[in-house]
UniProtKB/TrEMBL annotation:
The lineage of its organism: Bacteria, Pseudomonadati, Pseudomonadota, Alphaproteobacteria, Hyphomicrobiales. Keywords: Oxidation, Oxidoreductase, Potassium. It comes from the Bacteria. It comes from Gellertiella hungarica. Its EC number is 1.2.1.16, 1.2.1.20, 1.2.1.79. This is Succinate-semialdehyde dehydrogenase/glutarate-semialdehyde dehydrogenase. NCBIfam families: SSADH.
Length: 491
């Protein structure tokens, strides 16, 4: 297809996209307007897609609504089998999906493969969980009654996914909804819609009935979001993105008291206490800060290091960061790819400028790389204080600020002094400290002596203004189910 010529050069199976823009169940027909998708490493145009709006979104909602009753009426095993087939197709096409992801988002190919595997793991998990939706019986207060609770699907679900993990976020949102018996409409991020399109093409091959999975491509999300939130046929919204947009969607859902799941911004602290294994802490900080070029919602944003190990940690950490290779995600041995766009570059530069003006020092990095692409040197700042922008705002890039601290209790208070509460990390060996700090941190997820903690088996989500609800684990399935109490008298 000419539409995908630039992209299919990277694929072992160029037919992966065959017919993708002609599948009615994916909602990609009905508009002549197009928008382009570009490779952030090279600026090359990869593809052109239908640029859809309110009419196409409403049509996709209608298809999902028409399919809802039939999909919900299937047995759990039938829904599970379809999810399993989709999982197996994702696994089979891992290399091509990873190549698409790297081309449109820029992350190193090894990271892209890992993300596709993570996406497949969610499909596998919820294929299994579909068979474990249980109700309960309740002891009645009289002998002529029977009381029970059953669980039923919420209904049509509108989902909006971000650009930074465009494969795993699709699977993490859609698979529990489908397992529960809901039909879905997905609006992927305009920067990275291609891997979602490929995954939906595989979903078609897996045998999902007409209208169960629906894809809406669009270069602008505002009108799509308003239609998803305002349409009475949509019973739930699931969104991952900024807190600002999450607030807006929540307001738009309020008039209908529509259910929402929101996974929003973060400002993750990474605390190294003086009883920590410093080398292990450095390894964990590299993972937590620089995976996906720091463009993750759970990325370590503030590195607090206790005075007794501060200098050793800063030295070893900066040495490791200097050795990280930046470049095109398809190049061998690249650890960090490009940022998603020029605006992301500008934010990093603004944070560095503010920190240096207020007494911070650039330990390594600090500059853009080259004249093409959106590459930035992985950067370490020392001498950072709480009054700097970088200590208060989420950077979303390869910039690591180190803040020296003395008082273990005060650092927990500072770590909690934010509207966000998504993820936190700390390194320590004293067991009493481990328990007390883990319980005191006001975050939905806490990593202890590890820089990575995401798993399909664990609940992912935050406190405060970092979101509502959980994704992954059995708890993620509950967010797509309604609880119904049934009381039968005259028995």
């Amino acid at each position: 297809m000419p539409l995908f010529d630039a992209l299919t050069r990277h694929l072992k199976r160029p037919d992966l996209f065959s017919g993708i823009d002609r599948l009615p169940s994916l909602g990609t027909v009905g508009t002549a307007k197009r928008f382009a998708v570009f490779n952030p490493s090279t600026g090359e145009k990869l593809a052109e897609l239908p640029d859809m709006g309110v009419a196409e979104t409403a049509a996709a909602i209608d298809r999902a609504y028409a399919a809802q009753e039939t999909w919900a009426a299937l047995t759990a095993r039938e829904r599970s089998d379809t999810l399993w087939r989709w999982h197996q197709l994702i696994v089979t096409h891992t290399e091509d999906l990873a190549a698409i992801l790297t081309a449109e988002m820029g992350k190193p190919l090894a990271e892209a493969r890992s993300e596709v595997s993570h996406a497949a793991a969610y499909l596998q998990w919820y294929a299994e969980e579909a068979n474990r939706i249980y109700g309960e019986t309740i002891s009645a207060p009289s002998t002529d009654r029977r009381m029970m609770v059953i669980k039923q699907p919420v209904g049509v679900v509108g989902t909006i996914t971000p650009w930074n993990f465009p494969a795993s976020m699709v699977a993490r949102k859609i698979s529990p909804a489908l397992a529960a018996g809901c039909t879905v409409i997905l609006k992927p991020a305009e920067q990275t819609p291609l891997v979602a399109g490929a995954m939906f093409a595989l979903a078609e091959q897996a045998g999902f009935p007409e209208g169960v999975v629906n894809l809406v491509y669009a270069s602008e999300g505002d009108a799509i979001g308003r239609e998803l939130c305002g349409n009475l046929k949509v019973r739930k919204i699931s969104f991952t993105g900024s807190t600002e947009v999450g607030r807006l969607l929540m307001r738009q859902c309020a008039d209908q008291v529509k259910k929402v799941s929101l996974e929003l911004g973060g400002n993750a602290p990474f605390i190294v206490f003086d009883d920590a294994d410093v080398d292990a802490a450095v390894d964990g900080a590299i993972q937590a800060k620089f995976r996906n070029a720091g463009q993750t919602c759970v990325s370590a944003n503030r590195l607090y290091v206790q005075a007794g190990v501060h200098d050793e940690f800063a030295r070893k950490f900066a040495e490791r960061v200097r050795g990280l290779t930046v470049g095109d995600g398809f190049a061998p041995d690249v650890a960090i790819g490009p940022l998603i766009d020029d605006r992301a570059l500008g934010k990093i530069e603004a944070h560095i400028e503010d920190a240096v003006a207020k007494g911070g020092a650039v330990r390594c990095g600090g500059r853009r790389i080259g004249n093409g692409g959106t590459f930035f040197e992985p950067t370490v700042l020392t001498g950072v204080t709480g009054g700097m922008r970088i200590a208060q705002e989420e950077t979303f890039g390869p910039l690591a600020p180190i803040i020296r601290f003395e008082d273990p209790e005060q650092v927990v208070r500072e770590a909690n002094d934010t509207i966000y509460g998504l993820a936190a990390y700390f390194y320590a060996s004293n067991l009493r400290r481990v328990w007390r700090v883990a319980e005191a941190l006001e975050y939905g997820m806490v990593g202890i002596n590890t820089g990575r903690m995401s798993s399909e088996a664990a609940p992912f989500g935050g406190m405060k203004q970092s979101g509502i609800g959980r994704e992954g684990s059995r708890h993620g399935l509950e967010d797509y189910l309604e609880m119904k109490y049934i009381c039968m008298g005259g028995i």
